[in-house]
């Protein structure tokens, strides 16, 4: 086993937890199934872009993601129940195990990112949703649009329309309509909370699951890995002048990769991630945390032994 000073810095090992019945290593998260009833999710410092896990971790990124998600899950639990039970560690959450829906609900309030690239190519439809003519990059849609994707464990998620989801039996019509309602309500709450902090919630994605027919919000919400934020101040002026928007999201990582010739395509090489690059990315994640939550970020390194002990203690309290 490779030993390291901090889980937050590396996290390249697998923990052994009591009553563990399964383990799944995602691009960023390590998920431990406990007694087929609970999940212990460790948010690592791994970072992915263009569906590729980059070679070096970003210090404290896992803590940033986990703590933002926990705050927003608590802030939306009056809208929909969620999977979270507790956060015994800064970069780990324990929750209930749900049967996950095989789609991700993506909602967009502005024409940016993937939606803009689609629009710029000349297409006027995304996931079965018609797009208005005459829009510029980062323009606001008349109302937020839903552009779901399939949920891929490996490789790329794929765009899919509402009608295709229902026709293929991925989600029943009744349940899908409920997922749409939840998505719009959670996004509205996130938009209001962002506005209080001088931010615009541009777009995001949500994942859902169910237990005994009851729908739950799962995974993370409103983090820089799942969402895009613009700064409210100066937005209209920048838009009128055709200037790039000032934003808080993981997009700056993608932009750095593209500037250095990498977009995840076959034959392309990931550029060298120097210590300076790594520290800059870490600082940007911490900046985003402080803007999104309104809280000062406190770095909390966690040893492997402490992580195992704290998770085991929290899991034991559930029985």
Write out key terms for the chains shown:
disordered N terminus; alpha+beta; 17 strands; 32% helix; 5-stranded antiparallel β-sheet; 8-stranded antiparallel β-sheet; globular; D-amino Acid Aminotransferase, Chain A, domain 1; 319 residues
Could you give a short description of this structure?
The chain has helices spanning 61-75, 113-120, 162-167, 173-196, 235-241, 251-259, 275-293, 304-316, and strands at 20-25, 29-34, 38-43, 48-49, 52-53, 84-89, 92-96, 99-100, 103-110, 125-126, 129-130, 140-146, 149-150, 199-211, 214-218, 227-231, 247-248. By secondary structure, the protein is of the alpha+beta class.
Structural overview:
This protein is α+β, with helices and mostly antiparallel strands and 319 residues long. It has a domain at 100-245: ATP-grasp fold, B domain (D-amino Acid Aminotransferase, Chain A, domain 1), CATH 3.30.470.20. It is built from eight helices and 17 strands. The strands form four sheets. Strands 8, 9, 12, 13, 14, 15, 16 and 17 form an eight-stranded antiparallel sheet that branches. β2 (29-34) and β3 (38-43) form a beta hairpin. The longest helix has 24 residues, at 173-196. The two termini are 30 Å apart. Residues 1-12 have low confidence and may be disordered.
CATH class of the domain at 100-245: Alpha Beta
The name of the CATH topology of the domain at 100-245 is D-amino Acid Aminotransferase, Chain A, domain 1
Summed over residues and divided by their number, the pLDDT gives a mean of 92
Alpha-carbon distance between the two ends: 30 Å
N-to-C order of helices and strands: EEEEEHEEEEHEEEEHHEEEHEHHH
- Could you give a short account of the major beta sheet? 8 strands, antiparallel
Low-pLDDT parts are 1-12
Helix share bin = 25-40%
CATH architecture of the domain at 100-245: 2-Layer Sandwich
Radius of gyration: 20 Å
Multimeric state: single chain
* Number of β-strand runs: 17
